Amino acid sequence: MAILPIVISGEPVLHRPAEPVTEFDAELRAFIDDMFETCEAAPGVGLAAPQVGVGKRIFVWMYGDQDEAPERGVAINPMLWISPPEPGLPEEGEEEGCLSFPGERFALRRSARALLRAQDIDGNHYELETSGWFARIMQHEYDHLNGLLYVDRLVHPESRGAQKAERKNGWGTPGLSWLPGVADLEG
Q1: Vertex 50: Cα angle to 46 and 175 (nearest 5)
Q2: Which residues in the chain show pLDDT less than 50?
Q3: Torsion sign across C-alpha atoms 140, 145, 149, 153
Q4: Are 50 and 145 in contact (CB under 8 A)?
Q5: Rounded to the nearest 10 degrees, how much is the dihedral formed by the CA atoms of 19, 25, 30, 36?
Q6: Residue 145 DSSP label
Q7: What pTM value is reported for the model?
Q8: N or C: the chain end with fewer CB closer than 10 Å?
Q9: Is 10 left (phi over 0), alpha (psi -120 to 50) or beta?
Q10: CATH code where residue 176 lies
């Protein structure tokens, strides 16, 4: 197992839809093990394959504060259905962060419920009904598979704050990454 570099906003793989997984083999298992190790080292509650530079429809989660699913899991070739979010601006406590926009948090309104249909590491289909923060995690990771970062969904004034953070950090261009456990960004 290995800790993988996490790419930063601006890397092309983060901004385009990921491709379906077609091979469920030892190579996929090893990659998913590496994703879990990277997510834990970051630390994060979820990690999508595009965040480690791989344009495949895979994400993992590590979140134990919910009853809907195991605290650790993988979604391969997922589909996600969400309930409509409550209208209005985000409220206090609705802040998100992202390993591909590291060290920053911005408020984003998300749907309170989501239905996930995906395949597991063996290619078996499963379904999860999610709510609360777990539903937020599912939406965040699913967005990565569709070429979206959470900052792409922000509304003013949060969107302006994200733009300033991107400029201040020198992000938004290809070739930037960081390795969990190492303080400096690579580039």
Answers
A1: 120
A2: 184-187
A3: negative
A4: yes
A5: 60
A6: H
A7: 0.94
A8: N
A9: left
A10: 3.90.45.10
Whether 181 is in a domain gets the answer yes
Q: Which domain holds residue 172?
A: 6-96+106-186
Specify whether the CB–CB gap between 125 and 74 falls below 8 A.
no
Active site (catalytic) residues: 141
**3-class DSSP assignment, residue 77:** strand
- Quickly count: other Cβ atoms within 10 Å of residue 174's Cβ: 13
Q: Kindly state whether residue 1 falls inside one of the protein's structural domains.
A: no
Task: Report the pLDDT value the prediction gives residue 187, as an integer from 0 to 100.
Answer: 47
| Residue 29: CA count within 13 A, CB half-sphere | 5
Residue 150's identity, in one-letter code, is Y
- AA letter at 37: E
Bridging pattern class, strands 72-82 and 113-119: antiparallel
Report the C-alpha gap between 21 and 32 in whole angstroms: 12
Cα 178 from chain centroid (whole Å): 15
Instruction: Give φ, ψ of 12 to 5 degrees.
Output: -55, -35
75 backbone dihedrals φ, ψ, rounded to 5°: -120, 120
